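Re: zinc ion structure - here you go.
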Amino acid sequence: MLRSVRFAVPALALVLALAIVHSLQARSPAVPASDAIVLHAAHILDVERGTLVSPGEVLVRGNRIVEAGSSVAHPGGAAVIDLGAATLMPGLIDVHVHLFLHPGAEDLQTVVESVPERTILAEIAAREDLMAGFTAERDMGTEGAGSADSAVRNAIDSGLIPGPRMRVSGNAISILGGHEDAIHFNPAEHISSNATYANNAGELVSVIRQQVKEGADFIKIYQTGADRFADGTFTTPYQYTEAQLEAAVQETARVDKRVGVHCTGEPGALYAARAGVASIDHAYQLSPETMRIMREKQIYAVPTFAISEYFAAHADSPTAAARQRAMLAFHAAEFRKQLAAGVPMAVGSDVGPFPHGTQAREFELMVTYGMPAADVLRAGLLNGARLLGWQDVIGQLKPGFYADVIAVPGDPLQDISVLQRVGFVMKNGIVYRR
Ligand SMILES: [Zn+2]
């Protein structure tokens, strides 16, 4: 098969890499670029310093970066890809995605669509995310498709299908009658929960062991919901006590993995921060004490503004739209307090309920709501890599890092919306988009 063929001639590798770009719409081969490629463009982004260097070059050999900077060695026979006026930068990282969700009635996907059907859609979603420049992602739950995400991750890793590097959680964990338990349906119909039940510390431990056995890289727990927002006041019940979350974090750490929580507000956020989770996703409302602990323990907040914006624009009624917009404004104001308090941020969009491949909008929204572009890029790439446990191999263009490189048409420090117009994608040394 094409994916297992290796090429000794660099020029041939380049020709084939470009050929792949054209054939990707129909098929998904993954031919390793086995020799040197030099990427050349007008600029290259230094994420750590938050500066643009001109011109920009990256020397790639196999799946790794050999050299990156204003100019690099051009080994004899190396293929040169000239990206003109573009800016080279590391592949994007989204720390909150759902490959197994697509726009539409979220709860009903579990009811209407089979897991095999959803798995095929997840493969397409993975390709769309990669083509949009996302070369690494954390999947925050299959929402009723069990551990099918492990199969998608493995198929990507073995070159069977194109997609980002994935950290997957399997089915997320929630309580009976909780946020994901089909609570808007007639209970007599026994509509399935979109998460796996765990109602106490013992059940959390056994569900975690099962999910790890089935291939989970980390554990996703629903910590709050259902949310209420009325007259400017936000409330949300917690789902697990601090002691229960501690048991979950300990069990997960025992096998060198971490917990990320869906957590919109207090007091659930305080319990999660004290228990030592790795990230608090959504984070509409955090108390001063929670923010202090998050800063101290370097627990990331993941605002997921893009999904809120999409829901506001696609609400069922004008009343629902107004409520979504008010909620988003409340969150934006809280976000500014979180930045002022030094809460570390990571960039996650919650894509899935809105179309895959469009989620770079999240970077723009974080800038809109008050975070400097250089900080958003650091949050996305440096903190994102840390949250995925890949801080020494992705998120920067450095010697020894994976050759996950994209090109954008302009300066993301001046106009972060250029991340939504990615023109070139290389992942693991393979050109997927040109
Ligand atoms: Zn989510």
